[in-house]
Structures are given as C-alpha cells and as structure tokens.
Design a protein that fits this description.
With about 350 residues, the chain is mainly α. Helix content is about 75%, strand content about 0%. The longest helix is centred in the C-terminal third of the chain and has 35 residues, at about 310-345.
C-alpha cells in the first residue's frame, strides 16, 4: 500500500474547476437558447474532468483516514446542502413561471414526483415541474438537466472504500487494480456506444455515460494520485505525449470513447498540478459546484423571459451574472455554514 501523497496546495485546481464549470454552462446555454457561442471544451469532457479531479482528491482523502463514517459524512456535508437547496428552491420558486395558477401548481402530483425523484438523485424519472418550461421556446421541459451526474458522483465516492478494501484484502497491486478498472470502464463505454451506433436507440447512449462509463475518468485521477511524484517528474514528457495522441489519433473511430477519457483526465490534472499560476484564486471560497447546480434553471428562466432573443453576448452575460450571484448566495447561506459547523466540531 502506497503512503498518502503530499500534494502542494499551491496549485491551479480552483481555476480549472471554474473553467470546467464555465464549459458546462456554455454548452447548456448553446443547447437551450439555440445560440452558438464557440468553446473548445464540451460538457461531457468537462464533467469527465470533474470526475478526474474527484478521483485524485477523494481517494487520497479516504486512505489518509479510512474511516467510512467520517468519509461519508464529509461528502454529505459538502454536496447535499446546496443540492437539496437548489431542488427545493426550484420546486417552490418556479411557480412564478408555471402556466398553472399557484393552487393548481402546489396541488399537482407532478410537484411531489419532482421532489421525490430529484431528492433521491433519480431526476431522470421526473425532471420537470407542472406547467414549467413548456412550449415551443424550450428545447426540453427539464428544470435542471445537470443533476444527472450527482448519482454517478455518489456511486464513484462509494466505490472508493470498496476498491480499497478489495485490493487490501486480497493483496492486489493497486496500480494494476486501477488500470483494470479503467480498461473495464472503457470496454463498457465502447459496448454501449457501439449498440447506440448500430441500433439508433438513445437508451444505449444514455447508459454509456452512466456510472461504469465514468469510472475511467475517476480512476485515472486515482492512478495519477498514486504516482504523483512520477507524474510530476515526467510532466513535460506527459504533456508532449498527450498532444501527440490528440494530433495523431483524434480521427480514429471511437477515439472519444476509448482514448479521449484517459487523455482528458490526464490533461485536466496536468493543468491543475503543474505550476502555481492559479494559486491566488484558491485563497478564496470556490463556488464552482454551486455554479454547476444553478446554471441550468437560470438558463431556462432566461429563455422563458425572452433573453434568448437578445444578442448572444448580452444573454450569456445575463446568464453568467445571475448564476454567479445565486451561487454566492447559496454558498454563503447554505454551503459555508455546513462546512463551518464541521470544522467547529473538529476543533
């Protein structure tokens, strides 16, 4: 068993988190408004980048303590309060944009179904609210299409104690364990994407990006954590290799399913860990998670209000400013108090 790594806190992870969150915002903005703001990083790549960062940080956090209760509790304190807040806030506040009157809205069974599905991380079962975001102006009626990743996030977190137990119990080589998990995840992605390509059934595409399909990102982050010293020692060799792969293999069939996840995860961690140019931002509270949670309903409300008819730059600015403002409020009223109460308990 490798000892926990000592990671320099003067890194660029917070900047990278904001960039990934912005990538998701712009992708969903383009999707929901019909605009076409150019951006180099897709939402799927950005989500994979978040999972890679989580793997790097979370596995290391667990092996430093190996206390399952503390591990789960700390994750709950960080993730659940703002998540519950955004779900319930939308359920209550979006009555203002519903085509139903308040009495019809709050008595409609769809409201309870929405709360039950979303609070249990099964938002795909009932993503919409009664009379909300319906009509030709909307691409879909989903209140928050970003929440599909949360059940995957939790499944990945819960896989950490299990994987740790298995390779400790059976004395497996940890590096080979992570490599096998990554390869099995890629095989899973390839199988379901192939089924989607050959049948045209969208369910296979949806399944290809669920929990098993995201493990390749998460456990690439774990693999880099366990070989952090070597990763930093050969950082320039690694970045050159990644660029060569992108330039030479990008056109291969199924490249985005098989090779790209490993390359993307490696690049995200490379930019996060090499140098300290983004350190100043890490001295401030990070609200990228809140931005991720809030942006989708903000865009939908802006479409409802007619902001999609404004010039691209103006409507995007409204979306970004509104999302950041709500995220700051969420962090200060919901997220920070829960994190601070944990710190007081530990002091």
């Amino acid at each position: 068993m490798a000892a926990p790594q000592k990671i320099d806190r003067r890194n660029n992870m917070d900047v990278v988190r904001y960039y990934l969150a912005l990538s998701v915002v712009i992708a969903h903005y383009n999707l929901l408004t019909g605009h076409s703001i150019p951006w180099i990083t897709s939402s799927y790549t950005a989500v994979g980048g978040f999972f890679a960062l989580s793997g790097f940080l979370i596995f290391g956090s667990y092996i430093r303590h190996t206390d399952l209760k503390s591990y789960i509790t700390s994750r709950m304190r960080r993730l659940l309060p703002p998540y519950i807040f955004i779900v319930t806030a939308c359920a209550i506040g979006l009555v203002a944009v519903s085509s139903l009157c308040a009495s019809q809205y709050f008595s409609d069974s769809g409201l309870i179904k929405y709360l039950a599905a979303n609070l249990s991380f099964l938002n795909f079962l009932h993503p919409g609210l009664p009379g909300v975001f319906e009509g030709d102006n909307f691409v879909n009626t989903a209140v928050n299409g970003s929440l599909w990743t949360m059940k995957i996030e939790w499944a990945l977190y819960l896989s950490v104690p299990l994987v740790y137990f298995l390779y400790k119990r059976f004395r497996w080589n940890n590096t080979m364990t992570f490599v096998v998990i990554i390869l099995l995840s890629v095989a899973y992605r390839l199988l379901f994407y192939h089924l989607y390509a050959t049948t045209g059934n969208n369910i296979y595409f949806i399944l290809s990006r669920q929990f098993f399909g995201q493990m390749c990102y998460f456990y690439t982050g774990v693999l880099i954590y366990f070989h952090f010293d070597r990763f930093m020692r050969y950082k320039w060799h690694i970045i050159i290799a990644c660029l060569i792969i992108i330039l030479s293999l990008n056109g291969l069939p199924y490249y985005n399913i098989t090779i790209q996840p490993f390359v993307d995860a490696t690049l995200v961690l490379w930019v996060s860990l090499v140098g300290s140019w983004g350190y100043r931002l890490s001295r401030h509270d990070n609200i990228s998670y809140d931005i991720y949670l809030f942006h989708y309903p903000v865009i939908q409300v802006c479409v409802w209000a007619g902001a999609g008819t404004l010039p691209e730059e103006a409507s995007l600015a409204i979306v970004l400013l509104s999302t950041v403002l709500l995220s700051v409020i969420s962090w200060n009223l919901v997220g920070r108090p829960f994190m601070n109460s944990r710190k007081k308990r530990l002091s």
